[in-house]
Amino acid sequence: MNGFLPQGQLQMAPAGFARLLPGVPLLVFAFLPCTITGTELAINNNTTDRWLPTEPGQDQSLSCRVQNPSQAEELLWFREDGRVSLQEGNRVNASDICISPVSVDDNGVSFTCQLARNQSARISVVLDVVFPPILAGENLTSVQEEDDATLNCRTKANPVAEMTWYKDKLFLSLTEPRYRILQSSELFQLVIQKVQKSDSGNYTCMAVSSRGNASWQFQLVVQGNPAWTGLPESKQPAGGCLAVPRGRGPFRLCRAGSGSPRAVGMAAWPAVGSAPWKA
Ligand SMILES: *[C@@H]1O[C@H](CO)[C@@H](O)[C@H](O)[C@H]1NC(C)=O
Ligand SMILES: *[C@@H]1O[C@H](CO)[C@@H](O)[C@H](O)[C@H]1NC(C)=O
Ligand SMILES: *[C@@H]1O[C@H](CO)[C@@H](O)[C@H](O)[C@H]1NC(C)=O
Ligand SMILES: *[C@@H]1O[C@H](CO)[C@@H](O)[C@H](O)[C@H]1NC(C)=O
Ligand SMILES: *[C@@H]1O[C@H](CO)[C@@H](O)[C@H](O)[C@H]1NC(C)=O
Ligand SMILES: *[C@@H]1O[C@H](CO)[C@@H](O)[C@H](O)[C@H]1NC(C)=O
Ligand SMILES: *[C@@H]1O[C@H](CO)[C@@H](O)[C@H](O)[C@H]1NC(C)=O
């Protein structure tokens, strides 16, 4: 025997007394008082911190009460870190607040009731506002050929929705290396790098959750390179290059580096090989 308690008993020791030094016997446990002296609070008759399930549009009343007060106790309410102003007569021994109506923005927001004289005596509920996905974004995005297109699908959902992109009703295959998808809790973003004319179309951001589905349609219009303005459509090649029949045959004139083709008009083409174009 070295004085250690078996594992099971150790876990039942009160917090703060479980620090064991090797070889120190634990007989002291027998003499600890068993009663809890702190003043206890309850919200809606429950003394545990907890998530409170609710829905947008509902009225949620929170009733904080001091359990068996031995003296008049003043109460404070906080929404997150902000003090809630309470009317006279709604502060002593018990205090009620009402969230009316609950909105989707209240999801994850904490409401805390505490004793004015002792901030350790407190109880919190966190609203768990459940609703079908809500999406929003631009309807029309216009991008110059060869630029990157960014479609931002702003998302709110609880529970978390499964998000997907479609192009013209077809599931967007991510095998295309020009597509990048970024997802955070409130954004589902599709970036198409170096857009081509063929990228024009209707893109749908789709959210599926156990509470319902939602979609938002983005129309992407890829505008031709203005440098080609005036050229017949058949001679406006993709890829930022222009086939120019000259001398012994057609060669390709391409945008060099990151120079913007917007600055270049048909009438003012720099000589081939000079910036921002190269042969
Ligand atoms: C403050 O409240 C805590 C938790 O209820 C309690 O443990 C502590 O003894 C209280 N302190 C005072 C000074 O009443
Ligand atoms: C709390 O419990 C009391 C008595 O048990 C009851 O009268 C009261 O309606 C309950 N309040 C809430 C908010 O559940
Ligand atoms: C208080 O709330 C907790 C967490 O939601 C729950 O597990 C417990 O049963 C509730 N207690 C009472 C007395 O309703
Ligand atoms: C609060 O509780 C205390 C102790 O029970 C009591 O003396 C006091 O009158 C109560 N005050 C109110 C406003 O209920
Ligand atoms: C995209 O949507 C717009 C507006 O809803 C519609 O006019 C257009 O025909 C659609 N284009 C395609 C390729 O489906
Ligand atoms: C949401 O979409 C999923 C998958 O497409 C489908 O199984 C489900 O029935 C849809 N739910 C609703 C409420 O439309
Ligand atoms: C934008 O798109 C959304 C969803 O696709 C649609 O509900 C809304 O009416 C559109 N707004 C305009 C101005 O076209």
From TrEMBL:
The keyword Disulfide bond applies. It is a single-pass type I membrane protein. The keyword Cell membrane does not apply. SUPFAM superfamilies: Immunoglobulin. Pfam families: I-set, ig. Residues 33-124, 132-215 form the Ig-like domain. InterPro entries: Cell_adhesion_signaling, Ig-like_dom, Ig-like_dom_sf, Ig-like_fold, Ig_I-set, Ig_sub, Ig_sub2, Immunoglobulin_dom. One of its GO terms (molecular function) is cell adhesion molecule binding. One of its GO terms (cellular component) is cell-cell junction. Keywords: Disulfide bond, Glycoprotein, Immunoglobulin domain, Membrane, Signal. It comes from the Eukaryota. It is found in: Membrane. Residues 1-38 form the signal peptide. One of its GO terms (biological process) is cell-cell adhesion. PANTHER family: IRREGULAR CHIASM C-ROUGHEST PROTEIN-RELATED (PTHR11640:SF31), NEPHRIN (PTHR11640). This is Transmembrane and immunoglobulin domain containing 1.
